[in-house]
Amino acid sequence: MERTLILVKPDGVKRNLVGEVLSRVERKGYSIVALKLMQADRALLVQHYAEHEGKPFFEPLVEFMMSGPIVAVVAEGNRVIEGFRKLAGATDPTIAEPGTIRGDLARDQGTKVVQNLVHGSDSVESAIREIHIFFPEL
Ligand code: IDP
Ligand code: MG
């Protein structure tokens, strides 16, 4: 069965949207198989966002992700990687379709990094890599 890594980012936790995000995942029919509230440190985030190192938003992204607790989740189901990306919507919350997490619940805050509530793995390879970073015990 396919698995994906979902993160509720610090903006989502601060706005008390953890239940809203998890509810959408569960209502879609995916199962939550691991979950933790945690404070991510720089080393973990640099590893997680390695593909973005060198981009102008990289440092703001790491700072933002360290700005408060996050919720890390492993969800499971057939095509859950693609399915959660659809639930999340486009990276830019202004562009994200209404009906999606980002489209319904986030907007442009004028910050250097886009604050868009959630992360979802984008491929099978990414999911395996990212789940191992956040849940080495799995
Ligand atoms: P994704 O989260 O939709 O997969 P990625 O391109 O992997 O988007 O980017 C990771 C995160 O970095 C985004 O969710 C967003 O928070 C931030 N980000 C991506 N592109 C930009 C940008 O062009 N400007 C500012 N922040 C960005
Ligand atoms: Mg991504």
Structure description:
It is a single chain. The protein has a single domain (2-134), classed as 2-Layer Sandwich (Alpha-Beta Plaits), CATH 3.30.70. 41% of the residues lie in helices and 17% in strands. It contains 7 helices and 4 strands; from the N terminus they run βααβααβααβα. The protein has helices at residues 10-14, 18-28, 42-48, 58-65, 80-88, 101-105, 124-134, and strands at residues 3-8, 31-38, 70-76, 118-120. It is globular and about 35 Å long. With 138 residues, the protein is of the alpha+beta class. The chain has a 4-stranded antiparallel sheet. The structure holds inosine-5'-diphosphate and magnesium ion (MG). Residues 52, 57, 61, 91, 113-114, 116, 119, 122 line the site of inosine-5'-diphosphate. Inosine-5'-diphosphate binds at residues 52, 57, 61, 91, 113-114, 116, 119, 122.
Report the count of strand segments.
4
| Tally of domains | 1
Question: Are any ligands bound, and if so which?
Answer: inosine-5'-diphosphate, magnesium ion
What's the main sheet like? 4 strands, antiparallel
Strand composition percent: 15-25%
**Oligomeric form:** single chain
Q: How much is the average pLDDT?
A: 98
How would the global form be characterised?
globular
Element order, helices and strands? EHHEHHEHHEH
CATH topology: Alpha-Beta Plaits
Low-confidence stretches: none
- Category by helix and strand content: alpha+beta
CA gyration radius, whole angstroms: 14 Å
CATH superfamily: Nucleoside diphosphate kinase-like domain
Strand order of the largest sheet: 2-3-1-4
Helix content: 40-55%
CATH architecture: 2-Layer Sandwich
> What is the tally of helical segments?
7
CATH class: Alpha Beta
